[in-house]
Amino acid sequence: MVLVVEDERNIRDLVCLHLAVEGFTCETAATGTDALARAGERTFSLVILDLMLPELDGVSVCRAIRRGGVNRETPILMLTARREEADKVVGLDSGADDYLTKPFGVRELMARVRALLRRRPSAPAVPASDPPIAHGDIELDPARRRVRVAGDDVTLTAHEFRLLHVLLSEPGIVFTREALLKRTWQEDTFVTVRSVDTLIKRLRRKIERDPSEPRVILTVWGSGYKAADV
Ligand code: CA
To answer: Residue 8 Cα, ligand 1 centroid: separation in angstroms?
Structure first.
């Protein structure tokens, strides 16, 4: 079941038609608020989300979906009018997994859809028996699957939790994007290193005091990322 959010009827119908040919069922929404209402009702396998929408734009919808609820981890494919717009959307880290610029070909649309669905990630779980980690004012507790920053609970997705655990387990050790990719997504080959950057950004927004000047997860230029030494 795919949620298609698009206010232009022609595009909406076209997308649904081709998804139907491939055996998917579509639910549709024409406004941002309608999209959020539907996303709150049931879990979708994929959300195709137009950027420019009446009432609430695609980025706001995307962020709201990622904040919590049953579709928190559902892949989101953003539709945008221009490439610069798309780069901004993904760069700004709205939570979208991929984008497609209009006008797009049906073949490209379906290739992206299939790739996102195959990605369907189940993060390798951090064993509950692993000892809790304290790093500065961050506490990570595998048994309770809980992260606290300065005493406050922070809600992380399975991948964010896993990635944070990898980094905090070995502070000061530099991990390449490829290494983090492997450890966070295991054998899932449909995820690219860009997914690591996106995940790092999301994580920083949740755990760093000032995400623009990270103190916990540091970028090592030309190499990758590391957790700061404690
Ligand atoms: Ca639109």
So the answer is: 6
